[in-house]
Amino acid sequence: MTSTGVTDEAEDSGPGGYAAARLRLLTEGARSGPPRRRALAELTDGWLAGLFGAATEEHTGISLVAVGGYGRGALSPRSDLDLLLLHDGRDDKAVAALADRLWYPVWDLGIDLDHSVRTPQQARKTAGQDLKVHLGLLDARHLAGDLGLTASLRTAVLADWRNQAPKRLPELRDLCAERAERQGELQFLLEPDLKEARGGLRDATALRAVAASWLADAPREGLAEARRRLLDVRDALHLATGRATDRLALQEQDQVAAELGLLDADALLRQVYEAARVISYAGDVTWREVGRVLRSRSVRPRLRAMMNGRNGGKPVAERSPLAEGVVEQDGEAVLARTARPERDPVLPLRAAAAAAQAGLPLSRHAVRRLAATARPLPTPWPAEAREQLVTLLGSGRPTVQVWEALEAEGLVTRLLPDWERVRCRPQRNAVHLWTVDRHLIETAVRAAGFTRRVHRPDLLLIAALLHDIGKGWPGDHSVAGETIARDVAARIGFDGADTAVLATLVRHHLLLVETATRRDLDDPATVRAVAQAVGTEHTLELLHALTEADALATGPAAWSSWRGSLVADLVKRVSGVLAGEPQPEAETAAPTAEQERLAVEAFRTGGPVLALRAQTEPPADSAPAPSSPSSPSFPSSPSSPSSPSSADGPEPLGVELLIAVPDQAGVLPAVAGVLAMHRLTVRTAELRSVPLPDGVEGSVLLLDWRVAAQYGSLPQAARLRADLVRALDGTLDIAARLAERDAAHPRRRGVEPPPPRVTVAPAASRLATVIEVRAQDAPGLLFRLGRALEAAGVRVRSAHVSTLGANAVDAFYVTRGEGTPLPGDEAASVARGLEESLRT
């Protein structure tokens, strides 16, 4: 049966011999990939055939058949065995006894088994009722017994499949779509399921089933290699974990990469994503073809003849023009019969733009012909090529499928060679939904909705396409991206002035959101620094739209109406500076009437006063707007204990928490600790000193925070105030309470996060030192930071807290006790102390 000696040993020695031979096969380093999978299948074939021969002397009317993955003749180290005991309807007791003698040795070795016992008629009936059973039988392979019985079943099952294809293929398509909705897309997931996710091994099997129907066929180029790659990764995963798993978890990726001889986990994911992309694209093309064939079959020949007769005997026109050299046919954009790609270098972009504008997929045959024959574009590009690229990017959601078609045949990297470094590049950040290349296209899709807001839509769309292009290079991706953007802009034909704007947009695409969420916007130095970096109002307008498009394309955690309102506020202030409007030198805005009222009451009572205001958030893609002053507020002073509740309406996404406290030490860690005790997540935080009205001596600290409950509803404000009073007077040991809770409910071990980093932001403010903290978000983090700052003897003038997924990025404006910025060496010492406190 095989040239390897292990099969003979397995047959001679029974289960023990098979187990030893199997172990030796899986641990020897000489064989891996397809040869090992084939050898393992052959070894298992021989063992099972031996079990069958020892269990029965019958050679007619009964057979052992491998189905499903095992039927395809390739086994991964921990794959289960899909077996069918096929019989001609003989005595049930004899068949049951034979089945026991086959199944129990498999179970005794701890191998998972999917088994069934059926007659050919029962097998066909079950297949007709259960699509998954039918798919498994398409790969039926004879192992032992009556070969004629197995062959007749296989012939009948294939005939049934082909006869029932018009009914079963739509059912299979729906099954694939439902699984994709449930499992996600393999080519974008950080912890993908290699089998179940879209573009995984199940989809590859579905494409084999479509081909077996003879109704349509999948694109074959690269498909077998993509499936092989995923199987190789699954083999390595099985060996690394010792388990039958298809989930490529983060903590196993480095070991799997090493098993495959790859550089690191990123190289592993990139290979997985490339394979998944091939399978996903093949699926898209195949299911479109299936739909086209089924639609054409549904139109009766007589009806077609009648329609042709109404047109004077001429056939109904099947093609309609879309652009020069591009027509629509059967729901796809295809090349016109007169198209000459070898003479028309702009045709690939023109065809792509026409398809996207019409909301049509670009025919695979058209893309392949363009890739094979189209002339390269000259440098710089002609104006038409640049305009067609802008048109493609500005087409909105249809851009994605057209871009994927160009990617599948290598046309994108031919047009933009720098694209290769970001293609299929993973982003190990839970905030990001996409790989780098797909994120760039998603940003262009979002930016297409903002083209009416800017004076130069073309620059916005090109900047969206290029803003993260530097992530394929070492160092700061914004700096590297600026250089690449200059080169690409010149290559595609932008003049010097436009190239400079694009370079600025790419270099500073994070400037607005980082400044708005991590800096004090009332500090004139903050606004002047942004104005100096941006340069002109037109560039600011483009950068504002790019910022929102980038955040919306990143994922839901990257954008909110609150972030949008902060960015809009910053843009308004910077626009005033660029327009030459006089800027106030006062660093702190005047308190509102409500803030002043809370400050006076805090001073009068000598204790903290709280006010809660619900902040319901509109959809992320709606225009950002600051919270309305008329929103309902819920004050909590000694005389008014109340709190918002979900009974008042929809549960708020966040709640504004205003706290006024007489100026004293320890306010920041006390408030942060109390909120952590009550399982409140701090989304943003600002802290500043508010002077009291004229005639009243002293000052009050005002904390303006956005918080949300981790679980359930918000606690009563009166409880928050009571705990805060105790925390400030020292009768509540917050650190001990948080430690007790962590000990009672230890967090699960997961992937080791990168170490925290604390830096001093140079020249960020004239009146304070800005210390930036980047760390893994965790309950009590802000409490630990506040306590460390208190221990360092610095005064926190304001704090700006921002959380992106699992990452906290906080900025603290600190001064010495007398209100002056820290000297350089002292600031560095404070930063080191904060970092050490987070590492312990």
Automatic annotation (TrEMBL):
- Domain named HD is located at 436-559
Bias class Low complexity marks the residues at 618-647
Q: Which CDD domains match?
A: ACT_ACR-UUR-like_2 (cd04899), HDc (cd00077)
Keywords of this entry: Hydrolase, Magnesium, Multifunctional enzyme, Nucleotidyltransferase, Repeat, Transferase
Pinpoint the ACT domain residues. Answer: 656-741, 770-840
Q: Which InterPro entries match?
A: ACT-like_dom_sf (IPR045865), ACT_dom (IPR002912), HD/PDEase_dom (IPR003607), HD_domain (IPR006674), NT_sf (IPR043519), PII_UdlTrfase/GS_AdlTrfase (IPR013546), UTase/UR (IPR010043)
**Pfam families per UniProt:** ACT, GlnD_UR_UTase, HD
Q: Which reaction does it catalyse?
A: [protein-PII]-L-tyrosine + UTP = [protein-PII]-uridylyl-L-tyrosine + diphosphate; [protein-PII]-uridylyl-L-tyrosine + H2O = [protein-PII]-L-tyrosine + UMP + H(+)
Notes on how activity is controlled: Uridylyltransferase (UTase) activity is inhibited by glutamine, while glutamine activates uridylyl-removing (UR) activity.
Is Translocase found in the keyword set?
no
Enzyme nomenclature, EC number:
2.7.7.59, 3.1.4.-
* A Gene Ontology molecular function term of the record: [protein-PII] uridylyltransferase activity
Q: Look up the record and name the cofactor or cofactors this protein needs.
A: Mg(2+)
* Mitochondrion listed as a keyword: no
Q: Which PANTHER family match?
A: BIFUNCTIONAL URIDYLYLTRANSFERASE/URIDYLYL-REMOVING ENZYME, BIFUNCTIONAL URIDYLYLTRANSFERASE_URIDYLYL-REMOVING ENZYME
HAMAP family (UniProt xref):
PII_uridylyl_transf (MF_00277)
Q: Which family does it belong to?
A: Belongs to the GlnD family.
Q: What does this protein do?
A: Modifies, by uridylylation and deuridylylation, the PII regulatory proteins (GlnB and homologs), in response to the nitrogen status of the cell that GlnD senses through the glutamine level. Under low glutamine levels, catalyzes the conversion of the PII proteins and UTP to PII-UMP and PPi, while under higher glutamine levels, GlnD hydrolyzes PII-UMP to PII and UMP (deuridylylation). Thus, controls uridylylation state and activity of the PII proteins, and plays an important role in the regulation of nitrogen metabolism.
The protein's name in its UniProt record? Bifunctional uridylyltransferase/uridylyl-removing enzyme
Native species:
Streptomyces lividans TK24
